[in-house]
Amino acid sequence: MEPTILLTDDQIAFYHEHGYLAIEAITTQDEVDRLVGVYDRLFAEKAGRDKGDQFDLAGTDEEGKEASLPQILGPSNYAPEMRLTQAWANADAMVKQLLGPEGGVGGDHAIYKPPFHGAETPWHQDEAYWDPMWDYNSLSIWIPLQPATVENGCMWFVPGSHRTEVFPHHSINHDPRIHGLEIEGADVSGAVACPLPAGGATFHHSRTLHYAGANHSPMPRRAWIIGGGAPGKRRETPRSFPWNERKETARAERAKSS
Ligand SMILES: O=C(O)CCC(=O)C(=O)O
């Protein structure tokens, strides 16, 4: 599929300077409407739960307990039609604009905040979840499938924070059974909120500090996140992310036994 929307030179420069970017449209309202049907089905059917791909990002994820922040890793593995969308084609072209011709979209994930109930996504850097032995050249494209507002949990970013190293993190509530991470010791006082229309998008670098509030609205907050990258390289200076070594999540147990 050919891209229908590209970034402007000013948008590309803004991303590189600030480590994030917000655009009004990465796809059409018609496509958003179709994606909502797929998205809701995947969460309702608990797609990927037995493989450890669907879990509670902010809770202990016991069987039968309502998740406070349901997440699916790789929803397009369970609904491949998500990759045949204009959003995916546009995201791929935009990653190439931002990271060069070797760049492109890779995986995806979905974070759902139920009405009046979806928990906040604490401040973190995405790279803190990953293998510390690599230097990455990666970003995320966050696409809301309804308007995203401060009330329902839009994204917030700390401009310029992509130039920092990875800060220490810990599991939410310092509970190693919880998958989600929270940053330690970072100054987020300069953060900016990025409300968006449905089918808009924010972009953020893998080190940009970011957060999304709880959903205080009566409507679901659905976000589909497409990852993009260009080849990284193995680090010459080793580092460790001890917060990941301490994890004891039910999701990892399900993944092991599947
Ligand atoms: O959608 C959210 O609540 C947070 C998303 C996020 O942290 C991310 O895309 O890296």
Structure in words:
The chain has 6 helices and 13 strands. The protein is globular, with a radius of gyration of 17 Å. It starts with 8 loop residues before the first helix and ends with a helix. Helix content is 22%, strand content 27%. The chain has a single domain (9-184, 203-214, 225-257), classed as Jelly Rolls (Sandwich). The protein has helices spanning 9-18, 29-44, 75-78, 86-99, 242-245, 250-257; strands spanning 20-23, 54-56, 70-73, 104-113, 121-124, 134-144, 155-157, 169-171, 181-183, 192-194, 201-205, 210-212, 221-234. Bound molecules: 2-oxoglutaric acid. 2-oxoglutaric acid (AKG) is lined by residues 111, 121, 126, 140, 142, 153, 210, 212, 223, 225.
Structure at a glance:
By secondary structure, the protein is of the alpha+beta class.
- H and E string: HEHEEHHEEEEEEEEEEHH
C-alpha end-to-end distance = 34 Å
Shape: globular
- What's the CATH architecture name? Sandwich
Question: Secondary-structure map with pairings?
Answer:
Blueprint: H1 9-18, E1 20-23, H2 29-44, E2 54-56, E3 70-73, H3 75-78, H4 86-99, E4 104-113, E5 121-124, E6 134-144, E7 155-157, E8 169-171, E9 181-183, E10 192-194, E11 201-205, E12 210-212, E13 221-234, H5 242-245, H6 250-257
Antiparallel strand pairs: 1-11, 2-3, 3-4, 4-13, 5-12, 6-11, 6-13, 7-10, 7-12, 8-9
2-oxoglutaric acid is lined by residues 111, 121, 126, 140, 142, 153, 210, 212, 223, 225.
